[in-house]
Structures are given as structure tokens and as C-alpha cells.
Amino acid sequence: MIFGDTADFAIEAYHEPHGPRFGGFGRMCIYIQGVCLGDIRENHCSLFHATDRIRAVAADFQILWDESLASLSDTAIFTLIDKELYEGAAPGHRTGHTTRDFLTNTGEMFDGAKTFVVFRPPDRLHILFRLQDDTFGSASCNIQTFRNVADAYVGWFEEQVRTTAPPYFPINPFDLDEKVPDED
User: Is the pLDDT higher at 91 or at 19?
Assistant: First the structure.
């Protein structure tokens, strides 16, 4: 299924659980301004981590902006975040860029790419990326578009998992007829 417009922002995902214990597995990629990030051909990937990141960005996008980034280009921001997160900045020198890590290491479909996300007031969400072939890019969409697409996708995903995955507790303990003895 494709949620959104691939020329603006879209999430393409297919739930392919291959049995109840694999509910939440399938294929996925995202499109931003016509650029495809992720490999939709990579099948049987867990979609949970990427879905959690998409949900978190949509819900709390304001934390993705900091005035210290205002004068920096997207390339400079990417380099700053990359150095802190992946080139080992000393723990005392971390500035909170972990929230800006987007889909890096969230599943096999995004292997070989780094993606960071930055909100630029008043209403643009920028996805900064470096592909496996070292191509750098930056693309943006309106935050409300991102949130609408994210909400539609997350709702669909949760329904897919709810209807295919086994229950967390095979037997609901509240359905048992046993009584717990009173303490004296």
C-alpha cells in the first residue's frame, strides 16, 4: 500500500507476516520529493522499529529543531549529527542529536543508508540522507503532510499486527476461574 503522494511524501509498505508469529514483518520504503529511501524489494523485514520512529517524529516534531542549526546548511547539519552519533563524539560532548536519527539501522530495508530528520520552522520537515553509494541528499515536506501520512500508515500497521500477530499472553489471566486466596 502507498500512503501519501510519492512526489511529496509517502510511505510504501506491505505486511507479509508468513504466519502469526511474524505479524509486523514485510517490506517498506519512503518517498520524499520523488526520492525513494529504502529497498521495497527487501522482504520479510521487521517494520516495528521504523514504524516507531515514524510515529515518534510525527508526534513530537518540535524537538527536531534547535536554533543552533539555523545558520547551518543541510550538509553541515548532516555532518554534525553523523559525527556525534556514528563517529564517536565523547559522551560529555553529545548535544541531543539522537532524536534526529531517523531510519538508520531500523531494518534491513534501510541498510546502507543514513537518514536524519530536522524540523525547520514554521512547517518544513527535512530528511537528510546519505545513500550506500555515498550520494548525499536533502528533501523536505510540509509537517502536516508528514503527520497525515504517518498517522494513516501507523493506523494501518497497528491494525495489521492486531489481526495477525498472536496475543502477547496466549491465555488472558483475567479469564481464569481461579480465585486468589485472601491474605490474612
Answer: 19
What's at 133, amino acid-wise? D
Q: What is the pLDDT of residues 123-138, one digit of tens each?
A: 999 999 999 999 999 9
Rounded to whole angstroms, how far apart are CA atoms 87 and 28? 28
Residue 117: strand, helix, or coil: strand
Average pLDDT over residues 139-148: 98
**44 with 25: CB under 8 angstroms?**
yes
* Beta-strand runs (E) in 17-130: 25-32, 35-37, 45-46, 114-120, 124-130
Helix, strand, or coil (residue 159)? helix
Distances (CA, A) of 62 to 11, 69, 125, 153, 173: 21, 13, 10, 21, 41
What's the CA angle centered on 163, arms 55 and 53, to 5 degrees? 15
